Design the sequence.
């Protein structure tokens, strides 16, 4: 668990950087992309 390289969903307006983030982990593989996508950090990841 903990911070890792950022990833995001092409269907979402936020990116994730924590392996404990439920929202981030629920992204379907076909919608998942590496990097921030230029999007802000997800609120759940910010708390973790
Ligand atoms: Zn997140």
Sequence:
């Amino acid at each position: 668990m903990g911070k890792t390289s950022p990833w995001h969903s092409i269907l979402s307006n936020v990116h994730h950087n924590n392996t404990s983030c439920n929202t981030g982990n629920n992204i379907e593989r076909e919608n998942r992309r590496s990097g921030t996508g230029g999007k802000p950090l997800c609120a759940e990841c910010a708390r973790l």
Q: What stands out?
A: The radius of gyration is 9 Å. The chain has one domain: 3-47.
